[in-house]
């Protein structure tokens, strides 16, 4: 007799959880706790992230011996000549005139252009490797990257990144993405991502916790590891692999990719070598105070004791 049947996986795999818009697997309570316990760890990390970050920064300031102390202070000669040309013409150009100077995809509104000189990239990479080997505490960029470096902890905010954000990045971003800058890019989170076989090799499909992102490649000598760039979060299909909406971008040493934080993207696996990129998640409190880019709702804010929090501002009293 033939009877109808079902595969046993029906009770174990592909169980859609509407709240997270994802399919999960369930084979036993033990498997479930093991597989998803990293969520609990991540929440615990986030609870103290700002004070832990401050403690590590203070320890690094005392204990870490800088290899190239001069690169912690921004100087014009660290930039590629083309970047200096772009920054000079920015104030007198229309958005279209500026976009003409840049590569990328004007329709999708992501742009690429040279930012740092080869020499600066080399010095920074040497500093990062020196830091990797130093016996000091190290925070990691976020839940997606386990092997990068937080540039604020290393000491790059004070004399480098704050000036870079306000004097160079903001004038360009305000022309290209005015609705994501509004009153200004008032804070940032900057870090270096590292990919290597045996460590992190790729990065899943995501959008950034940023209004505007600048992603600058710091080295060459790796294979594959391109970015794939799709629609804005919530627009279109937004799934990796949907050919019609996803484009590839290959990193070039010293070049930056400038995109809106909400533009969906991911990184393909690296197949040889190491890849280091500096990522600047630039934030505008005037934009995110209206709509949190992570929950996509009006933010429910609470003050933080130290640092910039997640870049929102609120009035107390
Ligand atoms: O690997 C890259 O180049 C992109 C990294 C990235 O998108 C991120 O860290 O938010
Ligand atoms: Fe990203």
TrEMBL record:
Alphabetized GO MF terms: dioxygenase activity; iron ion binding; L-ascorbic acid binding; oxidoreductase activity, acting on paired donors, with incorporation or reduction of molecular oxygen
UniProt xrefs under Pfam families: OGFOD2-like
PROSITE patterns: FE2OG_OXY
Cofactor: L-ascorbate
Domain Fe2OG dioxygenase: 186-284
Keyword Iron: yes
Keyword hit for Iron: yes
Protein name (record): Fe2OG dioxygenase domain-containing protein
Taxonomic placement: Eukaryota, Metazoa, Ecdysozoa, Arthropoda, Crustacea
């Amino acid at each position: 007799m033939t009877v109808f049947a079902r595969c046993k996986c029906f009770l174990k795999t592909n169980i859609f959880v509407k709240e997270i818009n994802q399919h999960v697997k369930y084979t036993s309570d033990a498997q479930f706790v093991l597989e998803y316990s990293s969520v609990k760890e991540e929440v615990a990390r986030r609870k103290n992230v700002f004070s832990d970050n401050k403690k590590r920064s203070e320890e690094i300031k005392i204990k870490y011996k800088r290899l190239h102390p001069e690169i912690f202070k921004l100087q014009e000669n660290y930039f590629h000549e083309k970047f200096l040309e772009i920054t000079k013409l920015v104030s007198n150009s229309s958005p279209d005139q500026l976009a003409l100077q840049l590569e990328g995809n004007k329709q999708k509104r992501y742009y690429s252009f040279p930012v740092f000189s080869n020499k600066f990239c080399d010095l920074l990479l040497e500093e990062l490797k020196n830091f990797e080997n130093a016996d000091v505490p190290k925070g990691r960029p976020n839940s997606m990257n386990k092997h990068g470096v937080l540039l604020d902890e290393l000491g790059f905010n004070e004399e480098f990144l704050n000036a870079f954000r306000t004097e160079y990045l903001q004038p360009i971003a305000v022309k290209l993405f005015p609705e994501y800058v509004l009153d200004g890019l008032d804070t940032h989170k900057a870090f270096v991502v590292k990919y290597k076989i045996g460590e992190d090799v790729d990065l899943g499909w995501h959008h950034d916790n940023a209004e505007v992102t600048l992603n600058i490649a710091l080295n060459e000598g790796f294979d594959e590891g391109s970015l794939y760039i799709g629609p804005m979060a919530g627009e279109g299909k937004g799934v990796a692999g949907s050919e019609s909406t996803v484009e590839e971008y290959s990193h070039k040493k010293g070049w930056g990719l400038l995109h809106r934080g909400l533009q969906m993207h991911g990184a393909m696996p690296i197949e040889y070598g190491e890849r280091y990129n500096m990522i600047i998640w630039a934030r505008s409190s005037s934009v995110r105070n209206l709509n949190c880019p992570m929950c996509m709702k009006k933010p429910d804010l609470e003050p933080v004791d130290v640092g910039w929090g997640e870049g929102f501002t609120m009035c107390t009293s």
